[in-house]
Amino acid sequence: MSAPPPETLIKRDGESRLYAIDFANLLTTSESLDSVTSVTPSPAGPTIADEAISGTEVQFRVTGGTAETVYRISAIAVTDDGNTLEGIGDLEVVA
After folding, report:
1. pTM over 0.85
2. With helix as H, strand as E and coil as C, how does 29-53 read?
3. Hey, which residues does 21 pair with through a beta bridge?
4. What architecture is the 7-94 domain classified under in CATH?
5. What's residue 2's pLDDT?
6. Taking the CB of residue 28, how many other CB atoms lie within 10 A of it?
7. Which of 5, 22, 28, 67 could form a disulfide with 13 if both were Cys (CB 3.0 to 4.6 A apart)?
């Protein structure tokens, strides 16, 4: 299993958007996501809220962030097999 390249979400600095990171390529055939440990941006800036599992995705709401900045979003989830997986995505904030 290899991690897919990060997807990029583009949002305006004043928007509040639902964003998802898909873990499908990281899960085995019989494995499913069980819980979300954390979702964090780097560098700090955007606010992350409402983390939830939907199928093979970790979904969360993103607000704020500084215009003309790209943030790396890291989502950590635990599977029903006890594995801890990290999915990543990029968030580009525009004016």
Report:
1. yes
2. CCCCEEEEEEEEEECCCCEEEEEEE
3. 58
4. Sandwich (2.60)
5. 58
6. 10
7. 67
